[in-house]
Amino acid sequence: MNTATTAGPAAEPAAGRREWIGLAVLAAVALLLSIDGSVLYLALPHLSAELGASGPQQLWIVDIYSFMLAGFLVTMGTLGDRIGRRRLLMIGAVAFGVASVLAAYSVSAEMLIATRALLGIAGATLLPSSLALIRNMFRDAGQAGTAIGLWYGCFMLGMTVGPLVGGVLLEHFWWGSVFLLSVPVMVVVLVAARTLLPEHREPATGRLDPASVALSLATILPVIYGLKEVARGGWDPVPVAAIVAGLAFGALFVRRQRRLADPLLDLSLFAHRAFSATLGIMLLGGVVMSGTTLMTTQYLQTVEALSPLATGLWLVPQNLAMIAALALAPAIARRVGAAYVMAAGLTLGAAGLFLHTQVPSVGGTGLVVAGLVLASAGIALPMGVGNGIIMMAAPPEKAGSAASVTETSGEFGVAVGVAAMGSLGTAVYRGELPEHLPVEAARESITAAVSAAEDLPGLLEVARAAFTTGLNTVAAISALTFLVLAAAAFVILRRHDTAA
User: Fold this and answer.
1) Each residue's pLDDT tens digit, 416-461
2) Which of 126, 143, 248, 324 could form an SS bridge with 92, CB 3.0 to 4.6 Å?
3) Reported pTM
4) Any idea which architecture 16-197 has in CATH?
5) In this structure, are residues 487 and 265 in contact, taking their beta carbons and an 8 Å threshold?
């Protein structure tokens, strides 16, 4: 059987030592960006007290990074195709290092918000450039799959060790030290890039279209903002209007790309069946996993009453399972085919989510953690293979554009999952509560119920049972979604395996 990751008859040359050392540099970038996001949550109380940040300012300190990152991914991915991926990576490394120093020494909440925005834009140059360079360095499909799996594994590793690194830094230094962590890594990237990383740009591309850049930002930023606000406060008019406006600008963006000779986003990428199918499967898988992680984290903290630290420790096995599956997926795919790996992984994920349908309102920590381990390993298998399929499906000159699509879809998947699954869980929670409550504020959320029910243990018991029902419901829908995706992956990508 030919596999999705087997090179065709005209096999590409294998990568050598230089390419694998270069991969270590790019993986360090992924590791750092992941750590940079996860340590902020630990530093937030410290910096908020020091800078006098209000509640809304704290939210913007956290959110502005992801807004800018998501908004500029498409632009920066295509820009790398035009001016050179290594060049853009080095520009991003300088910008990220400078912005990190400015963030560390911020003297006001407003300054920190502005520097976090700069970090998001710089991060948008680093992520697609890294993936695109891997596509250029590893022409053999099997090696490329392994390299991309290792890159994503390092990204997930950063999410695991980030809180630990942050805890050590905050124990011995001031809050700004969490931002300075990136500076030496960016210096190493700058030094190593010229000798270890190849330059590649497409000479036949035209100039960047400013109108397309504006339309892409007008599409992505309002939608991401609206989804985050829906997850935070429900379907209020302002976030709904933002989502609708973003979708309207998105239609204009697509229309303009079809008319341009040199579009910002090459829509012909989506004509590749394996590219579109894999992207869609990973997007929906991300929706399911982000929503599930949200619900289970809330369960551990509110229903099981675990501390944030204890909750974080219980989530470590989930991240380790994901890292291991990401690393193993390409090797397994070379033996049995990408379709089988993706279908088996999603089926394994569905089994883990089924465990969550059985979680009780008392003493369910073991089931939650076991379910998360299976679901995370399950979704990591198609991720480890799927990212390679997407990158190898795109021609080398469009690698930056393909990488930006992958990363942007990931941002959308998380935002949609938190908003949609969170809203579903909240709706079930409210529907399960009795008509008359001693404290009506408990109807808003399980967090509000815990706060309001300190002296009302009966109310707390009812609220925890209602929230658990919401978790069970979300898990059941998520498990069914994974099974449907497994079938789709097997049917569609088996043809890709045969043709590869």
Assistant:
1) 887 888 888 888 988 888 877 776 767 777 777 777 766 676 778 8
2) 126
3) 0.79
4) Up-down Bundle (1.20)
5) no
